[in-house]
Design goal:
Largest sheet of chain A: 6 strands, mixed
CATH superfamily of the largest domain in chain B: MetI-like
CATH class of the largest domain in chain B: Mainly Alpha
Number of strands of chain B: 3
CATH architecture of the largest domain in chain B: Orthogonal Bundle
Strand order of the largest sheet of chain B: 2-1-3
Distance between the termini of chain B: 22 Å
Oligomer: heterodimer
Structural class of chain A: alpha/beta
Strand order of the largest sheet of chain A: 6-7-8-3-9-10
Strand content of chain B: under 5%
Largest interface: A-B, 27 and 25 residues
Strand content of chain A: 15-25%
Bound molecules: adenosine-5'-triphosphate, magnesium ion
Distance between the termini of chain A: 25 Å
Helix content of chain A: 25-40%
Order of helices and strands of chain A: HEEEHEEEHHHEHEHEEHH
Number of strands of chain A: 10
Shape of chain B: elongated
Order of helices and strands of chain B: HEEHEHHHHHHHHH
Chain lengths: 303, 321
């Protein structure tokens, strides 16, 4: 394998650098301090997260990536308040959070729309909980439904929607409750590649137009880079921050950028971090050699 | 479609086939019944006597085992007496389909033997009322309790272990007690239906509630739902379709307790009718009455299934039952 001649992923164009300079000036929306989480399982305590520290700025898009089981879901669930931290704390705009609340919206990997409510009523759910009148909630919900392009489906029940549409409604539902930060746990993980890339475009569009900060979990390297300002890379066992990468790709994003050198540089870096050489690669290497060996045997007699 | 095999694992049948098989499911037992009733060489263990002949204890219309009849016949043959006559018959407790079909109609039109007795439709109506009250009272307590204990572990712990124990106590065993406390009329009967339904109901419904996808609750929490909203806007609507199906099944169980319940205290309702008719050896009426229970049960369930489709429009795909 020839190594591509790529720039260093830390090199930033002036435009990108200016953007990061601006980002760092903004308010800190989410501040995670020494966060730790230990599960008491039947086989004894499992350390899922250990001393996690990072900050997310206003309107920033942070993706979280890491090997399977490294604690990504645990992290986002703890931020959402669905799990309680064992140690450390989570500050949302300076205030410590405990328990779930509408200030941290969440979109799950599985479909969690309420099947007994129409799309419109699903989107109204958060507003109604906050005591917004039905009329007001309805008109606001319809705006959000328009934003995700589902105005024709407002009166339809979720089971009549495709997977991608369901997740768009889930995004609209979460945003309608006016969270300060949107937490997304592999929201497009169950979608096919084509729908997924459409959803990425949708999400970036939405994010550009409204004041929302996003923390997005994925296990797809390209998705992590394509969406993010910064990528939080986690190590497994215990889950720890391995690196916080500033993505050197300019905005607005377009699919063509997947082949740009700075994109590939970031991708290569992620690859190194998530599949460290000498671990998983060895297995892949062996497989490749086997394949080549077979080809060799077939080819030789003809020579 | 027509070439699809009849036995394809977990594949839905075409509507036409479904209809054919539904019809068959009723026709087959009916055919067996008719075959046993109308073909003299299938079973027919008795002889019904038309001519007693010289056998002194034979009477016209009397049924007697074929062997006995044959012995008496042979005895008379040897002795040169008058020969008894008869035809092969099934025992009185197995009336033929047409007899039951006739009884189906006549049992409604026959006047009760005594003034104090009830017409059949009155008996049936009485039974339906007993079921209704027993089941309604049980549901008023059992459904909320089931939902609460499916939602809150503390509520569940507080009473489920006891209910687990109590549900093994057979409801009919409380009959005498119920009569002592509630008198001999409808009170103890309703109580038996209640006892038979309630404990199962709490367990079944709390189980149903527990099966609600917890992710829906978590989603609601991140949308700012408080505990009350969680219960009323997520748990209850979320379990409603399955709860409705559970209630239909439980109602079926309530019917099975009816017979026991109606024997307690003063016998009443359809059970009274059945025991009465059995005493008069009107087994065609007995069969008709038993079938009426089945038909009422089936029809009410079909009706409730229809209603369920209306009530839960979001359950289109899974509402087949
Ligand atoms: N409720 C729990 N009880 C015990 N251990 C748990 C629990 N939830 C998660 N864990 C453990 O914590 C670790 C992190 O799990 P988590 O689901 O957060 O990983 P993940 O990065 O989201 O994985 P994936 O990529 O598969 O989604 C795993 O080792 C897992 O077994
Ligand atoms: Mg996960």
């Amino acid at each position: 394998m020839t190594k591509l001649d790529l720039p260093n992923y830390k090199d930033q164009s002036p435009e990108v650098k200016a953007r990061f300079d601006d980002l760092k000036q903004r308010d800190v929306i989410l501040d995670v301090k020494h966060l730790g989480k230990i599960f008491d399982s039947a086989k004894g305590p499992v350390t899922a997260l250990e001393d996690i520290n990072f900050q997310v700025h206003r309107r920033e898009f942070v993706t979280v990536i890491g090997p399977s089981g490294c604690g990504k879901s645990t992290l986002i669930r703890t931020l959402a308040g669905l799990e309680s931290a064992t140690s450390g704390e989570v500050l949302l705009e300076g205030a410590a959070v405990s328990g779930p609340g509408p200030d941290r919206g969440m979109v799950f990997q599985g479909y969690t729309l309420f099947p007994w409510l129409t799309v419109k009523k699903n989107v109204m759910f958060g507003l109604r909980n906050q005591g917004v009148s039905a009329v007001e909630a309805e008109s606001e919900a319809l705006e959000w439904i328009n934003l995700v392009g589902l105005e024709k489906f407002a009166e339809v029940y979720p089971d009549q929607l495709s997977g991608g549409m369901k997740q768009r409604v889930a995004i609209a539902r979460a945003l309608a409750a006016k969270p300060r930060i949107l937490l997304m746990d592999e929201p497009f993980g169950a979608l096919d590649a084509q729908t997924r890339s459409k959803m990425q475009a949708y999400l970036l569009e939405i994010w550009r137009h409204i004041d929302i900060t996003i923390l997005f979990i994925t296990h797809d390297l390209d998705e992590a880079i394509y969406l993010a300002d910064r990528i939080l890379v986690l190590d497994a066992h215990p889950g720890r921050v391995s690196e916080l990468i500033e993505v050197p790709v300019s905005r607005p994003r377009a699919p063509e950028q997947l082949l740009r050198p700075e994109f590939l540089a970031a991708r290569q870096r992620l690859d190194e971090l998530i599949h460290p050489p000498g671990q998983g690669d060895e297995e892949v290497g062996k497989l490749n050699m086997l394949r080549f060996a077979n080809v060799g045997e077939e080819v030789q007699p003809q020579n | 479609m027509t070439s699809a095999p009849w036995l394809a694992p977990r594949i839905a049948l075409s509507q036409q086939r479904e209809r054919v098989l539904t019809l068959l499911s009723f026709l087959l037992p009916l055919l067996i019944w008719a075959a046993v009733s109308y073909t003299p060489f299938i079973w027919h263990p008795n002889m019904e006597i038309t001519e007693p002949g010289s056998v002194n204890y034979f009477q016209e219309g009397m049924q007697i085992e074929r062997e006995t009849f044959q012995e008496e016949y042979n005895t008379q043959l040897e002795a040169g007496g008058e020969l008894p006559q008869g035809f092969r018959a099934n025992p009185v407790y197995l009336p033929a389909p047409h007899e039951v079909a006739i009884a189906f109609y006549t049992s409604f039109t026959t006047e009760p033997r005594r003034r104090s007795e009830q017409w059949l439709h009155e008996s049936l109506w009485h039974s339906i009322q007993i079921i209704f009250w027993g089941f309604t009272l049980s549901s008023i307590l059992g459904v909320p309790l089931g939902i609460l204990s499916g939602t809150f572990a503390a509520v569940s712990r507080l009473h489920e272990p006891f209910i687990e124990f109590f549900r093994y106590l057979p409801a009919p065993a409380f009959g005498a007690l119920a009569v002592a406390i509630l008198g001999i009329y409808d009170g103890p009967k309703i109580a038996i239906i209640f006892i038979g339904t309630f404990f199962q109901q709490v367990l079944v419904i709390s189980n149903t509630t527990r099966k609600l996808d917890i992710a829906l609750l978590e989603a609601a929490l991140t949308l700012g739902a408080n505990r009350r909203q969680l219960l009323f806007k997520v748990v209850i609507p979320g379990v409603l379709p399955q709860l409705y199906k559970d209630q239909r099944i439980l109602l079926g169980w309530a019917w099975t307790y009816l017979i026991v319940a109606e024997l307690i205290g003063t016998s009443s309702g359809i059970t009274w009718f059945i025991t009465q008719q059995a005493r008069y050896q009107n087994f065609d009426n007995v069969f008709a009455a038993i079938m009426m229970i089945g038909i009422i049960g089936l029809l009410s369930d079909l009706l409730l299934a229809r209603l369920g489709k209306r009530l839960f429009p979001w359950e289109r795909s899974s509402n087949k039952s």
